[in-house]
Amino acid sequence: MLADFKYIFIWWLSLFFLSSLSLPLIFLLFQKFWDRGYIFAKTLSLFVFSYLLLVLGIFHLTSFTLNTIYTIIAIFVLLDIFLIFKNKSFFAGIFRRYWKIFLFEEILFFIILTLWSFVRGFAPDIEGLEKFMDWGFVNSILRSQYFPPADMWFAGQPINYYYFGHFVFAFLTKFSGISSAITYNLSIATICALTFLSGFSLTSNLIYLSLKKPLFRLYFFGGLLSAFLLTFGGNLHTAYKIGKNIVIEDQSFSEASSLYWYPDATRFIGFDPDTTDKTIHEFPLYSFVVADLHGHMNDIPLVVFFMAFLFVALTTASKLSAYLFLPAGFLLSLAYMTNAWDFAVYGLLFGLSSLLLTKNFWKTLTSGLFTIAVWIIFTLPFSLKFSPMAEGLMLVDARTPFYQLFILYGGFWLISLPFIYFFIKNFRHKKLPPADYFVVALFITATLLIIIPELIYIKDIYISEYRRANTMFKLVYQAFIMYSLISGYIFIRLRQKFLYRFLFCLVFIIHLSYSYFAIKSYYGLKSYRGLWGLHFLQVSYPDNLAAINWLNKNVSGQPHIVEASGDSYTTFNQISMATGLPTIEGWLVHEWLWRGGYEAPAARVAEVEKIYNFLSQNSQIKNNTQSSEEYIVSPGDSLWKISKQELNNEFLWKKIAELNNLENPSLIYPYQRLIIPIDIPNNIVEGNVDVSNIDEVKSILDKYQIKYIFVGDKEYEKYPDINFENFNFLNAKIVFESGQTRIYQLP
């Protein structure tokens, strides 16, 4: 752990420096917040820096280099100087007055960053689920000079997925100078820490602004409640499943607890009991545990920041103006590029909260339309090379039993509904604080997100049993975030009711108990292995790892490679994943989804098959020569050139080498005398090689501009009869060899 602490500190210091550049703007935006929105500077810096780098790269204005990053830093510094001088009275003494608050949040952020990095160190491998995809995106971005980044599994085409969250952490990786095999796990820990602190800040400030006499212990405690529920909470499934096994299966508590399987809380509808309507309903802690660096998780800090900004903008501006729709449109564009569904989700929240807080439908509509226009403008550079994958809107033909919805979200309903009753009862007769209206908007939005997949779903490529799984997953994930954020607020608002306090504590304990089962099951916490994510390659594929290291050290840019293509969720396509070098075809189902159809990826799979099937043929040349003659080598000659020129068959170079006892066929010199065979029937010299395939294979390699052919463990698994002699037909030379793993370079 001590060795890894160096990386944690460098990573934190890099983020701290970047976030300090956004502090003046954050302090101006969140003047009403008790902590001045300090933690949101980290999110703002990460996403704004990344957006600028992406746009500059898309339009080829600057390349993705440290010099470009330093230039943007310089611009930020100048902007900070301008803001500070323009608002001297505001900034005078701000650190002197608030330094304890800033220090507390920074220390808490560092503690959680370190804590989750430590947890990840017990199972750090970048393997399983969709980690290959996520890390492959990061590595492809890191190799890119300009954007959009190349799809490492579809050579010649850009990534057609919402990759902006991956871009954010690729940027921080480049800036920090740490290997991406380590920063992958640091990125997960960073999102975890940002989620906790962002949730704490937003909820505590909603409470702070709702109290007539703000008491530190109240808004501080309420913020912590929401932060824990958001970051480390689950649902009622843990209590339901353990209780069911005790009552129905007659198990003891210890037995039922030991048998509890944490993913069941995210795969409940359609699985228990088993039906043909299977769904997915994840939440942040599950994401942090399984550690896929996916868009829905990458976007958590951003959407919490958006909600904080939205509340401040709606309650500060005297009228709906550019102060609202310009930044809102920009933030929604970032959310769209990170996790496309979140544009619609938080666009809905924008409309509902605006309507509730302003009570003006036309102003809400007008500001909404302006916000959409701004969103289109800021999203345009990304959208130019992005094709949405949705195939249409469908009505559901199956719905979730209410008891299952209650097990998943009933805890939040028990917490929230008493407040909704309180709000309905009082909003006409009493002047309620704006935070109450915003919390109600969050509750309504979250509830609608649960209802919508019970009515309609977005059609995609998934089989009929999972027809509404992705729609439900994308929507209810955000519902969980909103429910968690309002829970601490509502507890403080209704804290005087003893029965409510008891009910809240019961739900809180059940939700938090999930973290025990999930962390224990996935990580074990018995053998710390460190933050380096490639132990699985070191143990199971050491020669492949050596090849990856060689490529990362010796190959610059993004030349194309070919490796065996494989099914999704397997360990195929390790090389493209770990280097960012595009291969002809990677995970088939993923490319099927991203390309909007099966035909193009399937055609590439067939082309990869042709290459390796050709390389697997028996290439032994038959000894049919009848006579020979002398040949004098000219400057620039090679055996391949001589065999093609003199014998009209480039594949006879090996026979020339055998006749002349050449130990190294590539070393011949001008005016050397060679014996070459003559009178060889062309129809039999190739032995068992089907020479009619050679031109086709060459055309495939040329089509995708392949520079390297890889042969390693997964290639042998799929093509066990690979014959190295056949690489001679392609005039390929070995540039790396370790065990049976080889990398061939094409001319």
Comma- or semicolon-separated keywords:
mainly alpha; 747 residues; Rossmann fold; 4-stranded mixed β-sheet; 3 domains; transmembrane helix; two-stranded antiparallel ribbon; Membrane-bound Lytic Murein Transglycosylase D, Chain A; LysM_dom_sf; membrane; YYY membrane protein
Describe the fold and architecture.
- The chain is mainly α and 747 residues long.
- It has three domains: 479 residues, no CATH class; 136 residues, 3-Layer(aba) Sandwich (Rossmann fold), CATH 3.40.50; 61 residues, Membrane-bound Lytic Murein Transglycosylase D, Chain A.
- The chain is 60% helix and 5% strand.
- The protein has 31 helices and eight strands.
- It has a four-stranded mixed β-sheet with strand order 3-6-8-7, sandwiched between helices.
- A hairpin with a 2-residue loop joins β7 and β8.
- α1 packs across α8, α19 packs across α21 and α20 runs antiparallel to α21.
- The chain is elongated and about 110 Å long.
- The two termini are 46 Å apart.
- About 2% of the residues have low confidence.
Q: Report the strand count.
A: 8
- Radius of gyration from the CA trace? 30 Å
What is the number of independent domains? Answer: 3
Structural class: mainly alpha
Unreliable segments (pLDDT under 50, ≥5 consecutive)? 620-626, 681-687
Main sheet properties: 4 strands, mixed
Give the assembly state of these chains. single chain
